[in-house]
Known about the structure:
Elements: H1 2-27, H2 34-43, E1 52-56, E2 68-71, E3 90-95, H3 104-110, E4 114-116, H4 121-137, E5 141-144, H5 162-170, E6 174-179, E7 195-200, H6 214-240
Parallel strand pairs: 1-7, 2-5, 2-6, 3-4, 3-5
Antiparallel strand pairs: 6-7
Helix pairs in contact: 1-2, 1-3, 4-5
Amino acid sequence: MLKLLRIIVVVFCCILICVLGSIYSLVRFKNPSNVGIMARWFGRLYPFFGLKVEHRFPENVDDFGRCIYIGNHQNNYDMVTISYMVRPRTVSVGKKSLIWIPFFGILYWATGNIFLDRENRSKAHSTMNQVAKRINEDNLSVWMFPEGTRSRGRGLLPFKMGAFYAAVTAGVPIVPVVCSTTHNRIDLNRWNNGKVICEMLQPVDTSGYTKENVRELAEYCHQIMQKRIEELDTEIQQQSV
């Protein structure tokens, strides 16, 4: 009964956010701050899942400037956990098929996000060049999930190179953002589903990398994020004892 009630409430809230958010975003069509505002609206829904979410930002986060944020992509709960971490003047890169999701697709388009055609590798490569160009010309940052798909309990998957290629091309740092593990830890029939920690790490300087060794940059970021996710999981486990 609790699960059904939660689903009904969350679906209603999501549709409401999409409708009102689309109207708001169409008035401010593709304003680069739209994405962060909508992300925080969705990020406020976590109590409906019986979660307590702690969001940690570095003290110097306002000084980061243009960058590419990369986050771990676990499951659909990302929408109410790590999405809150999206900063102002930040757009995301998502697969082209998102446009066809009822209600959400219009919102995703109107807020000014960048669509990626994964089926066409040449177009995908061109999109990363466009991302790099937009970062500097439009003075914005970009949010990406470098795993390319939800991990669904398989740990932090290997990273695709797009985000790192774009960062090196644009000459901006990579900012890792991690969320503690949520896979198999949320039961919608359970009143209290515990704590989740989302944390933004310090920027990774990309000036010492080129397109030829961009894979080394990706592997370094993967190691940083993997280590921090494990530390957050340990912290939560110790707090629950």
